Amino acid sequence: MNADVITSTTYPHGTIEGFQGGCNTAHCPAEVSCRTVHTRYVGDWAFRRQINAGMTPAQIVAAERKQAQEAADADLRAKKAKGSQRSAETRDAARERHNAARRAKRAANLIPQKALIPRDKLAALLDRGLTDRQIGERLGFTRRQVAGARNTAKLPRNPDSNRRPAPATTGASS
């Protein structure tokens, strides 16, 4: 396409003939470019039917925009109508149902789980001076599983002599 085609006032811009005649860039001066008209004509059966019926591409695009705006307005009206139908009592009831479900879920999480190692058995082994590692070896658990069970039971630990020294106790020295 050359500059004469773009600046020509008699060239059929915005038409199938305009595209076929050489106006196939984005610089088409028509409201709907020749390239867009060609693309829609080739790929959109409804658009092709309207063009063949005598409508101009500008009329088709204007009708499509109007239809899209009407659909958006109808959706907005429907949303507003649905929102206004919901009374304050309905909102309160929905809020209460939501809060009750949250309370039930919270209560379900607070149900104590079955202990991995019974507290009395764990306490007895710790009283014998066994470490978490030794208890784990005897019962078939890992050291971390035993440590977790001991921490959950709030029992003191017996330090592992080859891992960590016993924690220093703080007290008044005389």
Task: Quickly list its features.
single chain; mainly alpha; elongated
Question: Would you kindly provide a written description of the structure presented here, covering whatever features stand out?
Answer:
By secondary structure, the protein is an all-alpha fold. Among the domains are: 3-61, no CATH class; 113-164. It has 9 helices and no strands. Helix 3 (34-43) packs across helix 4 and helix 8 packs across helix 9. The longest helix is centred in the middle third of the chain and has 29 residues, at 57-85. It is elongated and about 105 Å long. The mean pLDDT is 82.
Task: Give the CA-based shape.
Answer: elongated
Count of distinct strands: 0
What structural class do the secondary elements suggest? mainly alpha
Give the uncertain stretches in residue-range form: none
Overall pLDDT metric:
82
* CA-CA gap between termini: 103 Å
Percentage of residues in strands:
under 5%
What is the H/E order?
Answer: HHHHHHHHH
Q: What is the count of helical runs?
A: 9
Gyration radius over CA: 40 Å
Q: Helical content, roughly?
A: 55-70%
Largest pleated sheet = none
